[in-house]
From TrEMBL, chains A, B:
<keyword id="KW-0805">Transcription regulation</keyword>
<dbReference type="InterPro" id="IPR002577">
    <property type="entry name" value="HTH_HxlR"/>
</dbReference>
<dbReference type="InterPro" id="IPR036388">
    <property type="entry name" value="WH-like_DNA-bd_sf"/>
</dbReference>
<keyword id="KW-0238">DNA-binding</keyword>
<feature type="domain" description="HTH hxlR-type">
    <location>
        <begin position="38"/>
        <end position="136"/>
    </location>
</feature>
<protein>
    <submittedName>
        <fullName>Helix-turn-helix domain-containing protein</fullName>
    </submittedName>
</protein>
<feature type="region of interest" description="Disordered">
    <location>
        <begin position="1"/>
        <end position="22"/>
    </location>
</feature>
<dbReference type="InterPro" id="IPR036390">
    <property type="entry name" value="WH_DNA-bd_sf"/>
</dbReference>
<dbReference type="Pfam" id="PF01638">
    <property type="entry name" value="HxlR"/>
</dbReference>
<keyword id="KW-0804">Transcription</keyword>
Amino acid sequence: MQDGTFLSAGDTAVTDRGDAPVPGTPAGAIAALLDGTCPVRDVLDRIGDKWSVLVITLLGDGPMRFMELKRAIELVSQRMLTRTLRALERDGLITRTVFPTVPPRVDYELTELGRGLHATLAELARWSYAHRADVEAARATYDAREADSQAQVEPESLRA
Amino acid sequence: MQDGTFLSAGDTAVTDRGDAPVPGTPAGAIAALLDGTCPVRDVLDRIGDKWSVLVITLLGDGPMRFMELKRAIELVSQRMLTRTLRALERDGLITRTVFPTVPPRVDYELTELGRGLHATLAELARWSYAHRADVEAARATYDAREADSQAQVEPESLRA
DNA sequence: CAGTATCCCTGCCGATACTG
DNA sequence: CAGTATCGGCAGGGATACTG
């Protein structure tokens, strides 16, 4: 299974660019990525949704109960918070502890696995934050060019 | 602006867990994250979509032209490939070079910024791949528990 | 070849109401 | 408090047809 592991996520380090000429393109790995066969896709799907990263981040500072999370995020609907928590629990990233009191109390906490992802996400966040100016500048430049090319087509509306 | 930077992505390293007790919960940072004010959300949105990571990965091995990418991914629609490439270009992650030949030829290539993200994504991919078994096991366990609890409700259908 | 334009459908997600 | 159930909007993304 060490043929076309997506992003060379396998055994060797590939932090920099092309260390291998790439045979023909890892078509197998790509197919796997789309089938849901690829473990990378799983994580991508999880962090791609609107709330998971937020929850993982909040739980990075220790366990919280349902309403604590709800109030902390505040813009999330009850439905989505529940779904998000269930998905994270299913993937073994958080634990769900029910205290059979009345009213009920449920604590959510990162597992060891969850803390690992939390750390990796922090890496990504750090990169994003460090390069926020570059991205913003790139967008400004791009949008300015767009506006210019539009300006050469639209002026007729002023001559009407 | 060093109050509640999301995921502590600011100036200090936080690779491991909670190094600060967290005052009250960084409500401001969370609001910013949802407003689109947060640079982390930008990256999350980008890598959260279906094709961006794939494209960045493929371009990690050098420039490619439109049809090369299309054929490499093969399941992507023309429409979505174009949109993905435009978004990446706008964010300054790739460059688009048009050769005014006939038929036209367009090359896409990672920028310096893009190569940085490529490296960070490789980190994430490596983590995902390294822990794929844990996630799979967690899911199996979870799903088995689910099936069990269902089994105590459903049997009536067998007694009908 | 490298796109743009149009149609359409699925599923994500929010709002609301109800329950143990 | 901590959920589940149901309805509905709308954006992401695919299929197809057309263009420079």
